[in-house]
């Protein structure tokens, strides 16, 4: 098992055993700022080496994927799971959006195995963060009063939420500065990245175990959904990755992005845009089940599936 | 105490997600200012340990006159009680420089 996943396990077990271990909230905040900026910078740096027009068709296909996933998740939750419209839509929105940390772990998985990938993939991370949330909000308001949606504040929340500003900002800085301009930042943003990721995962383990009690009240259907939906989304990601000509590594990253569910950007946006939804349900599904599943089992599984297509 | 003047202290303990909205609301409803602190605790919405975003709580305190206190509490009751974790209460306090908080 990869060392970084073990940090998640450590945090999870420590919290279950009622250890007094607690990371200061400010450290959590600082780590998330650092990780988002570093991922953005790295992607932007690679983007500077690409022909932007060549990436455009791929980027549009990826946005379609971000819209499609919540549209698949919603009827499953609404019709089969019998969640009310608000909860079904909010959960679907979380699964349409992405988890940055899951992406970072998948990148580390590839690097540890010397599998090459398109290094501009953080661009897709930025593109996939928004559509899912927007579709989730639309689904929640469909059939109701569309005028109740405060589009101004929702768009503000989505586009100027801190994760978006940091990711997209890092991407732009990396793109503008290019590989040479970023050289002085190498030790801080790239060499130390993995250590910071480990600390962050330790905290995620603590938080996930702290939320685990909510599993009892959220029901078996949601647990099944949180395990099954990532696999369905990953398959879509794999098919799309192959269709737009990504390498095996790039396809695995796209599959992981599709499979991951947001637990930072989406909860904040949904809380304001769909207050009727119970935030505990989405967070339990995304953080307590889907995140560890992707981390420990999902990524190796998607790797196998990708290998079937790419023949090794 | 002879040197203090009666004033209302409105206290709202709620989700961090509401801070920006509430700040705008209370100023619009006549408050002269407010103080916000990050807090943690436990209640009917479970343990809000405050370690990460979705789990954070704030306490907003507003010193104001009676009518503003009524306006603010009526507004938050109608707008936020149904879907958000919120505790609201009003206390009688004595302030110095009453013109800072009322009128």
TrEMBL record, chain A:
Keywords: Membrane, Transmembrane, Transmembrane helix. InterPro entries: Sbt_1. The chain crosses the membrane at residues 55-78, 90-111, 123-142, 154-176, 188-208, 220-246, 252-274, 281-302. The keyword Transmembrane helix applies. PANTHER family: SLR1512 PROTEIN. This is Sodium-dependent bicarbonate transport family permease. It comes from Parazoarcus communis SWub3 = DSM 12120.
From TrEMBL, chain B:
One of its GO terms (molecular function) is enzyme regulator activity. It comes from the Bacteria. GO terms for biological process: regulation of nitrogen utilization. This is Transcriptional regulator. The lineage of its organism: Bacteria, Pseudomonadati, Pseudomonadota, Betaproteobacteria, Rhodocyclales.
